[in-house]
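REQUEST ID: PR-0412
SUBMITTED BY: lab tech R.K.
PRIORITY: routine
TASK: structure prediction, single protein chain
INPUT:
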Amino acid sequence: MIAIIAIKYPEQNRDKTRMVGEYPFPELPFDIAEMTEKGVIVPGDIAGTTGYMEFLEMLETYALSGLKELRAVNPITRGRPVDTIERDD
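STATUS: complete
OUTPUT:
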């Protein structure tokens, strides 16, 4: 998990949000050239994202879709209504 904090920079009269450790957020859209060179498939909608909220919403959508597919084949959860699944183990 990455902790995110907001820091007030009074000399610049604006807020800057940084990840703990003072690493700046990467520019959007992401530069995916290195990932694609290594054979990683990055969906076009993720690659072209220009806002962090949009990016996080897309990641959540992909994660929930993957979880749904996983639960469909998991012997513990397959065939059960989603609202009855409390844990997958």
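NOTES: The beta strands are 4-9, 14-19.
REVIEWED BY: pending
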